[in-house]
Structures are given as C-alpha cells and as structure tokens.
Specification:
The chain is mainly alpha-helical and 168 residues long. It contains two helices and two strands; from the N terminus they run E-E-H-H. The protein has helices at 33-127, 133-167, and strands spanning 5-13, 16-25. It has a two-stranded antiparallel sheet with strand order 1-2. A hairpin with a 2-residue loop joins strand 1 (5-13) and strand 2 (16-25). It is rod-shaped and about 155 Å long.
Length: 168
C-alpha cells in the first residue's frame, strides 16, 4: 500500500469513545509528543462539537413536543369551553322556560277565577230575564256577548295551562 506512517486518535463524547480518526502517510514521520498533545485537544474539541449538536437536536425535539402538547391542550380547552357554553345556554333556556311556565300557570289561574264569576253571572242573567221584550232582548244580547267573551278567555286560559304543564 505504500503506507509508512499511521496515526489514530479517539473522539470522546460523555467520557466515551464514539469515533476514531485515522491518518495515513507515504512519508515516514518520527514520534512528536507536542503534536500528540495538540491532536488530543482537537479530539476533545470535536467531541464537544458533537455533544452540542446532539443536545441542540434533543432541545429542538423537546421544543417541538412541547409546542405540540400545548396545541393539543389548547384544542382540548377550547372544546371543553365550547361544551360548557352550550351547557350553560341549555341551562339558561331551560330556566327561562321554567319561569315562563310558572308565569303562564299563574296568569291562567288569575284569569280563570274572574271568568268563572262572569260566566255564573251571565247564566243567572239569562235565566232571570223578566217579560219586558226590550229588556229581555238587551239582556240576551249582553249575556250572549259575555258568554262569547268568557269562552274566548277560557281558550286562552286552556292554552296557557297546557303550555305551563309542558314547560314544567
């Protein structure tokens, strides 16, 4: 091969040899202790460069993993916030409907009592009409209108009562 001199020196990382540099020459060289010390320092420096590069790569991977974790966490927080807002909206709507149902029930009750009184009076008027044809006609007309009005109010009452039962 024509090789007359050879030289090899280790590259250390974390106190362990991870590479060896080998140098060959066709010339004959004598041993030089100063050169050996310089080459040993070069080997240490090269090892430190590799260590820094590995640490930088590990740091980049960790950084990317943290960013991905944060992104995933933010998505979960956003989803949970959306779910909570939906639940809150449903609860508010349910609460409003319940209050509306209670109010409708109260209004229906308040309407029903006077209705019963009006209906009762109109029947009494209708039954107690005297023989005067004009008074009789006027009383019949008034009682008829009272009955129609009370029937109309009764339908409103029934609608409110039905609504309050559905909501409650």
């Amino acid at each position: 091969l024509g090789v007359h001199s050879a030289f090899a020196f280790p590259i250390f990382s974390h106190g362990k040899i991870f590479a060896v540099l080998e140098l060959f020459s066709e010339k004959i060289f004598e041993r030089n202790d100063v050169f050996l010390i310089v080459v040993a320092h070069i080997g240490q420096q090269i090892g430190q460069v590799f260590e820094r590069e590995k640490l930088n790569e590990d740091l980049r991977r960790s950084h990317d993993a943290i960013i991905e974790f944060n992104r995933s966490l933010e998505e979960k927080v956003e989803e949970r916030t959306r779910q909570l807002k939906e639940s809150q909206q449903i609860l508010m709507t349910s609460s409003k409907m319940s209050a509306l149902g209670e109010m409708a029930g109260g209004v229906a009750h308040e309407i029903n009592n006077p209705l019963a009184v009006i209906k009762s009076i109109s029947r009494q008027l209708s039954e107690g009409i005297d023989d005067d044809p004009l008074a009789k006609s006027l009383q019949k007309d008034m009682t008829s209108r009272m009955e129609k009005t009370t029937d109309r109010i009764a339908k409103i009452y029934q609608g409110l009562q039905s609504f309050s039962r559905e909501v409650s």
